[in-house]
Amino acid sequence: MTAVAPGAGSAASGGTGDTLLKLDDVHTYYGQIHALQGISMEVRRGEVVTLIGANGAGKTTTLKTVCGLLHPRQGSVTFDGKDTSRTAAHDLVKAGIGHAPEGRRIFSRLTVLENLQMGGFTRPPSEIAEDVERVMTLFPRLRERMYQQGGTLSGGEQQMLAIGRAMMSRPRLLLLDEPSLGLAPILIQVVFETIREINAAGTTILLVEQNALQALNIAHRGYVLQTGNVVLSGDAAELRENETVRKAYLGEI
Questions:
Q1: pLDDT surpassing 60 at residue 7
Q2: What is the mean pLDDT of residues 17-34?
Q3: What is the pLDDT at residue 252?
Q4: Are strands 74-79 and 19-30 parallel, antiparallel or unpaired?
Q5: What tens digit of pLDDT does each residue of 75-99 get?
Q6: CATH homologous superfamily of domain 19-103+171-249?
């Protein structure tokens, strides 16, 4: 692939051009495994930015580094103008970063309502009910399942709950890791339409998604990762038309 400078391309219509998140030469390890090998990228306020790439490319590791579950050994992560490279994950939730992880990771023995309340642990208790109502409006299906245990929900409902739980902290940046994984096509459409609504309401989104076409259809910009490196970046429309991207990630020959 031809490398493109990270952040290349004009600001998308949904963004302001003001950088909310920036990674600069980030190197992240799992023990001795060098997972991220100098990642640099940015996410501007109001954007949906997607990371695409094969399994093992470093997409999930990038999200974990942003949200504080992993800390880079080299390089820096800056959120809203502050270096957060060593900031604890729970403090980053308070700072405005929400995370719906791969595999949903809901509390299976807690009810839908209790899961959402757990997601709002940083919010004033007096505002929890209002936050729950916001999520229920976003995902009407969850209102019908409010007192049902999370583990008894369908895969699509669990994904809605995972996103809703992340939204309970009123994040300014929402990290979504494989939101369509394992879902039926009709539910995939529901999830992506909801992501559009969340972004339209003002939440900036960094999206990891194996369904590259769906991701590029809703994103403003994207980055292509290979073995811990950014190998291509640009406006989503440009990436959709890129021959290498079309062959490698969009299933075209």
A1: no
A2: 94
A3: 56
A4: antiparallel
A5: 999 999 999 999 999 999 999 999 9
A6: P-loop containing nucleotide triphosphate hydrolases (3.40.50.300)
Given this model, what pLDDT does residue 217 score? 92
User: In terms of DSSP bridges, do strands 97-100 and 82-83 run parallel, antiparallel, or are they unpaired?
Assistant: unpaired
Neighbours of 22 (CB within 10 A): 20
Residue among 233, 163, 178, 245 nearest 210 (CA): 178
d(Cα 220, Cα 205) in Å, to the nearest integer? 10
Domain ranges of the chain: 19-103+171-249
- Residue 14 pLDDT level (bands cut at 50, 70, 90): very low
Contact indicator for 110, 67 with CB cutoff of 8 Å: no
The three-class DSSP label of residue 22 is: strand
Please answer whether residues 104 and 158 qualify as being in contact, where contact means their C-beta atoms are separated by less than 8 angstroms.
Answer: yes
Between the alpha carbon of residue 186 and those of residues 82, 114, 189, 192, 193, the distances in Å are: 40, 27, 5, 10, 11
**Residue 150 CA to chain centroid, in angstroms?**
21
Q: What whole-number distance in Å separates Cα of residue 229 and Cα of residue 232?
A: 9
- Nearest alpha carbon to residue 210 among 171, 251, 239: 251
